Predict the structure.
Amino acid sequence: MPRFCSSCGAPIGRTAPVACPACGKEHWLTTSRAAAALVVHEGRLLLTRRGLEPWLGRWCAPSGFCDGPEHPAATAERETLEEAGLRVRVTGYLGHWVDEYLPGEEGGVEPQWCAVSYYHAVPAGDLELRLDPREVSDAGWFLPDELPRPLAPPSNGARIYAAWREAFRAGRLETLLADR
Ligand SMILES: [Zn+2]
């Protein structure tokens, strides 16, 4: 994020929101869109163990950043296929959580945030997992009361999976997806 103005190249030296002292261009804080798939099969949730930073070694739903204009529901399906080798179909929406993905630095580098849309999903093909070792070190299907720890993201993980457990228990894994 801008230590230098993207318009005129002048050093800015403080975090956005800020106007460039040289040309006046305004710089804003931005958040990257991402999505996750909460895949349930026979009462168990698919979780993967992160094989890369940040949050290395923590457990989370298959997830990743949206590719440009990609719809987050499509991202959730694509990431599950890429990370776990599992073809899935999104069936509902749980909610949206924002987390700090990379911390900021001195000298005007803003923290980077990810805004993750969490979708319910079910397997849409065979159930064999084929993990991508560049992203995932382990994976498994877990009962709602036996989710592995620690969860990712560190700040919101517990909250997100508590919300999922509540939706699961209430049978609310299919919702209207009016934007698909
Ligand atoms: Zn400028």
